[in-house]
Predict the structure.
Amino acid sequence: MAITAAMPTAKERPRRTRTKRVSTRPALKLSKLPPSHIDLLNPLQATLVCEDCGTWCPITGINCKVQKVVPHHTGKAHVADAIHCRGSNRRIDWDLTIPEWRQALTDAITEASSRTATTVLPRPFSPQTNRTLQARAERTAAGRAADWKVALARVADADKARRTVPAGDAPAEARSVPTDHLTVQRLAS
């Protein structure tokens, strides 16, 4: 028998498994789950989202005494590693009737729809911004070229003023800079 290094991959499982195994974890109460994580539209094919791995799993044993989450893997079929989910075979406590679930789902949908934004209205411009935008829209290519000529002349004047060196080597009101070499001398003790 040859040993391969490949990990086994998850395989398709039958939708309804009949097993006597039951998880040792406490029963899953339907009232504790969000109503959007339960699907009871067709009670004979009820499904819910597994708390551990987040996948939709059918509920087995609807007509029996014990209802459980179907055994399942955490990964996708034929893609991920075959790791058995901890939420498999977990008992389900039906503390929620179908009309109660339907009402809770309707309330959750209403609440979620009230949180979503309706229409985003553009913010009105201030009068100054409005004037600026109108002035830009009214400008022509010739007007922009004339504005650039004026700006370039101002830039040239500013550069010329920066290059000029003030008269004299020191500011008028400042002390003069010492020119003789300073050395550190120790006092004789």
